[in-house]
Amino acid sequence: MTVPATPSRPPASAAAGGRAHLVKTELSGVTIGVDALRVSAIEDADEPGVAGARTVDLAGLLGLGEPGPRPEGGGSRRALVVKAGGRVLRLVIGDAVRVEALAPSAVRPLPAFVDALAASVGIGSLFVAGDALGYILDVDRLSDVLATKELSR
Amino acid sequence: MVTTKTQSPAREPSAESQPARALDLESLKGEGAEPLLVVRAGELWLGLPAHVVDQLHPVPPMTPVPLAPAHVLGLAILRGEVTPVLDLERFLELEEAPAAATQDQWLGGAAARRVAVISAGGMQAGLLCNEVRGIVPVRAPSQPGLKVARGRRLEKVASGELSTEGGVLVVLDPARLLDEARVKP
């Protein structure tokens, strides 16, 4: 059976022709990026956060293990607050977060062999920086994935 | 009383699973020849139609794919393109330690491994092989049906087999291979 390819969606700022800005984090050695335009806040994951927000352990969702132990010296895990699918999501990540610009040419579509990632975990595209490669999370797709999982319970 | 420590008998290769090194490429040539890239996964020799083969590479650095099955090793950047790489031996369930490990040591070890990038069925992926022998004009299979591949995962992706005195070559259908091996929702 051939599964039709799911079109990849680059970050909004890249699609408009400008440089994308990604909020990046590392989970078990894998770099995950979220379009900075979609991140309304970066907050302490252990704080209560916005009322009514859905908290998502991103490492667990992606099968990339725990976000990591709390760093010594008072660091804490972060949560990216995004709005998608009519609700607020708090994506719990590691403690290290950085915002970086990305040239449009660095954004790549998902290869057809792995394009099921879009439907299963909301990964919409990839970015390449030198020899390094990372995944760009499409928060709208992620919201759809979460809604589907909730409906199937 | 003298006791003798007995060793476990060495695994004797069956007619269907001759040691990989015994495959005679010359015996594969003949009428109706189709160029095939001949590669080894585990102890089995496999053939891929040459027209689907894009590139051959040493094993590259790879980024893991979230939630992918174990045979999907990761994504690699090959000639500037993001390419998924799958472990052919693992996907086809041909892992047979320690015999395969011994074969690898004899045949050059990990240094002999190569990634063959193929395009088929609208997809492109790299196949990690234990060894690549090269492109050989291989004669058409003389007997119908599958013998070595029957009853195994290999059966789903094989299009034919050639038996020679030196061993068996299983010809793969690359489009079916990539469709079976791809990451599913």
Please write out the topology.
The complex is a heterodimer of chains A (153) and B (185).
Chain A: H1 12-15, E1 20-27, E2 30-35, E3 39-44, E4 54-57, H2 58-61, E5 78-84, E6 87-92, E7 97-102, E8 107-109, H3 116-121, E9 123-129, E10 132-137, H4 139-151
Parallel strand pairs in A: 2-10, 4-6
Antiparallel strand pairs in A: 1-2, 1-7, 3-5, 5-6, 8-9, 9-10
Chain B: E1 34-41, E2 44-49, E3 53-57, E4 72-78, E5 81-87, H1 88-91, H2 99-106, E6 114-120, E7 123-129, E8 131-138, H3 154-157, E9 158-164, E10 167-172, H4 174-181
Parallel strand pairs in B: 2-10, 5-7
Antiparallel strand pairs in B: 1-2, 1-8, 3-6, 4-5, 6-7, 9-10
What does this structure look like?
The complex is a heterodimer of chains A (153) and B (185). Chain A has 153 residues and is α+β, with helices and mostly antiparallel strands. In chain A, 18% of the residues lie in helices and 39% in strands. Chain A contains 4 helices and 10 strands. Chain A has helices spanning 12-15, 58-61, 116-121, 139-151; strands spanning 20-27, 30-35, 39-44, 54-57, 78-84, 87-92, 97-102, 107-109, 123-129, 132-137. A 6-stranded mixed β-sheet of chain A has the order 7-1-2-10-9-8. A 4-stranded mixed β-sheet of chain A has the order 3-5-6-4. Mean pLDDT of chain A is 83; it is low at 1-6. Chain B is 13% helix and 37% strand. Chain B contains 4 helices and 10 strands. Chain B has helices spanning 88-91, 99-106, 154-157, 174-181, and strands spanning 34-41, 44-49, 53-57, 72-78, 81-87, 114-120, 123-129, 131-138, 158-164, 167-172. The interface between A and B is medium-sized, with 29 and 25 residues.
